[in-house]
Write a structure and sequence with these properties.
- The strands form 2 sheets. The chain has a 10-stranded mixed β-sheet, with helices on both faces. Strands 3-2-1-4-5-6-7 form a 7-stranded parallel β-sheet, covered by helices on one side.
- α13 links the parallel β13 and β14.
- It is of the alpha/beta class and about 500 residues long.
- The chain has 2 domains: about 200 residues, 3-Layer(aba) Sandwich (Rossmann fold), CATH 3.40.50; about 270 residues, Ribokinase (UDP-N-acetylmuramoyl-L-alanine:D-glutamate ligase, 3-Layer(aba) Sandwich).
- Its EC number is 4.2.1.136, 5.1.99.6.
- This is Bifunctional NAD(P)H-hydrate repair enzyme.
- One of its GO terms (molecular function) is NAD(P)HX epimerase activity.
């Protein structure tokens, strides 16, 4: 499953037409499916359909026709100048005897629900004049709004604030990335019958879902023992950050690691989980770290000024490694990239800004581009750029093609201290279980976010997410994990 830009979805539409699929059939399916999903949540209310003059407006005209055909009270307000398929949809609507009112005549009607079919993904800039005022009036009306494919006005201001968005054919960036995602309300992804070949685009980011992540879960054999299911070495800790390596260890254990060793400065009051092996050290060097038998390493959590030294010492172990927090420095990343070891870096926007020489605000605004740039700068390293949502990127050595993925789990309540430490431990456990760096990173961020979604509440703490990881694993394994976009295929 891929995540589409507006341009990529338009290309998919053109590809479907080139394959011989009639565009009018796509519009009819889009309108019918939207109407059906609207009725699932707002049956019994008068429906007011607001239509622009493009294809999104055509989808709304089709929806109005089906709603009327099914016996529901519908009022239609449309812009003048319908063309192409939208004009044919308008003609079909008139054949059903429905009056089409000028869009300028719309006024909020009590107890109605608004179907927003003004603008789709084709906007080239912010709405102005009449349309900007119309959007503001809709938002201020207090009426429930269902958006066709995308709330009108996105990704600019002003835009519709919808209660429900029926995404058509595929999810777009605005459905995933904050703050735009907030304007969509509940999101339902629905099929419009587009040929699968039209949607197939390997250059787009993969959207992590329950279906594709379930296949990556490690299988624990019946004769498993603690040394056969993954041994993780956590390296970190500093006087001010004694909890970070402990949280990483807890995340590793709760994801299924058989044995976790925590290496930390001997002069720090680090208290690992009771089940962890303690390895207090007076010096970061490879020989000291070799006292712990490890299948994978997570290094840098709360390591402070010793982060670079600790990471370079861990490099000598020649084990798959997660580089987090204070290990994220140019010198370290270059060394790991040159080593060829399976390695994962997990920066947040602030850490990525230091690596790229950009502001954290720029990183947060353009996370896909930032993650891709990091992956191309450090070939072979899997990039996990944490955020809302987390973006992953990987440029295999010797290639110019960067693989991209976007996580679909997690929520804003997870924006608290220690969450990244838990994530580093989760990914470390999956590396130790034998997954590739790309698979461990994707499954790790998905499970971490899924665990956070189990207890989506204010004041959510990192150790609470760690404790919920076994439930998240079981949900994914059993098939009971649900994707946030509520698929509407039937």
């Amino acid at each position: 499953m891929r995540l589409f830009t507006a341009q990529a979805m338009r290309e998919a539409d053109r590809k479907a037409i080139d394959l011989g699929y009639p565009s009018l059939l796509l519009m009819d399916a889009a309108g019918r499916r939207t109407a059906k999903r609207l009725l699932e949540r707002f049956a019994g209310r008068k429906i007011v359909v607001l239509c622009g003059k493009g294809n999104n407006g055509g989808d709304g005209l089709v929806a109005a026709r089906w709603l009327a055909h099914w016996g529901h009270e519908v009022a239609v307000y449309a812009a003048e100048g319908q063309e192409g398929d939208a004009a044919m949809a308008q003609q079909a609507l008139r054949a059903h005897g429905l009056e089409i009112n000028p869009l300028s005549a719309w006024k909020p009607q009590p107890h109605s629900v608004v179907l927003d079919a003004l603008f789709g993904t084709g906007l080239r800039g912010p709405l102005e004049g009449f349309y900007a005022e119309l959007v503001e009036n809709i938002n201020q009306s207090g009426l429930p709004v269902v958006a066709v494919d995308m709330p009108s006005g996105l990704p600019y201001q002003p835009h519709i604030r919808a209660n429900l968005t029926v995404a058509l054919a595929g999810l777009k960036n605005e459905h995933l990335f904050y703050p735009h995602r907030t304007a969509c309300g509940r999101i339902l992804l629905d099929s419009i019958g587009m040929p699968p070949r039209a949607l197939d685009n390997p250059h787009l980011p993969e959207l992590l879902s329950s279906a594709n992540m379930r296949a990556l879960l490690p299988i624990r054999p019946g004769n498993a023992h603690k040394g056969s299911v993954g041994r993780v070495l956590v390296v970190g800790g500093y006087r001010s950050y004694t909890g970070a390596p402990s949280l990483a260890a807890l995340g590793a254990y709760r994801t299924g690691a058989g044995l976790v060793t925590v290496a930390y400065p001997a002069d720090c009051d680090v208290v690992p989980p009771l089940e962890a092996v303690r390895l207090p050290l007076f010096e970061w060097n490879t020989a000291n770290l070799q006292m712990a038998r490890a299948d994978a390493v997570a290094v840098g959590m709360g390591a402070g000024e010793g982060g670079v030294e600790a990471a370079l010492a861990a490099l000598g172990l020649a084990r798959p490694t997660v580089l987090d927090a204070d290990a994220l420095h140019e010198r370290v990343l270059r060394a790991y990239a040159q080593s060829g070891l399976p390695s994962i870096i997990t920066p947040h926007p602030g850490e990525a800004s230091r690596l790229l020489g950009l502001s954290a605000e720029q990183i947060a605004r353009f996370p896909l581009e930032a993650a891709q740039t990091l992956a191309q700068r450090y070939p072979g390293l899997v990039v996990v750029l944490k955020g809302g949502p987390t973006v992953l990127a990987w440029t295999p050595p010797g290639t110019s093609e960067t693989r991209m993925a976007v996580n679909s789990t997690g929520n804003p309540q997870m924006a608290t201290g220690g969450m990244g430490d838990v994530l580093a431990g989760v990914i470390g456990a999956l590396l130790a279980a034998g997954l590739s760096a790309w698979d461990a990173a994707r499954l790790g961020v998905y499970l971490h976010g899924l665990a956070g979604d189990q207890s989506q509440k204010p004041g959510l703490l990192a150790h609470e997410v760690a404790e919920t990881l076994p439930e998240a694993v079981e949900q994914l394994r059993s098939g009971s994990a649900r994707d946030f976009w509520e698929p509407g295929y039937d």
